[in-house]
Design a protein that fits this description.
It contains 2 helices and 4 strands, in the order βββαβα. It is an alpha+beta fold.
């Protein structure tokens, strides 16, 4: 099976990151778990999100989620 070229785009002003496969937008992620779920829904759940070479993390890696600390600061 040929896997698409997956890109997690740089964070937007709200900290969200667009996830695309080839040129198709799969979804918007606000956390690493969202990326995992977006790929699962696209039947790409065999991909190890944090370790896969086929995911191009632009503007920061799997641990870079600006704004995340504000969302979880109250917890």
């Amino acid at each position: 099976m040929d896997l698409p070229s997956i890109v997690v785009h740089p964070p937007a002003l709200d900290g969200s990151r667009r996830v695309t496969a080839d040129s198709e937008t799969l979804g918007i992620a606000y956390h690493l778990d969202d990326v995992v779920e977006i790929l699962r829904l696209a039947d790409l759940d065999e991909i190890e999100v944090e370790e896969s070479d086929i995911i191009d993390w632009q503007g920061g890696g799997p641990d870079d989620w600006p704004g995340l600390s504000e969302h979880h600061a109250a917890e």
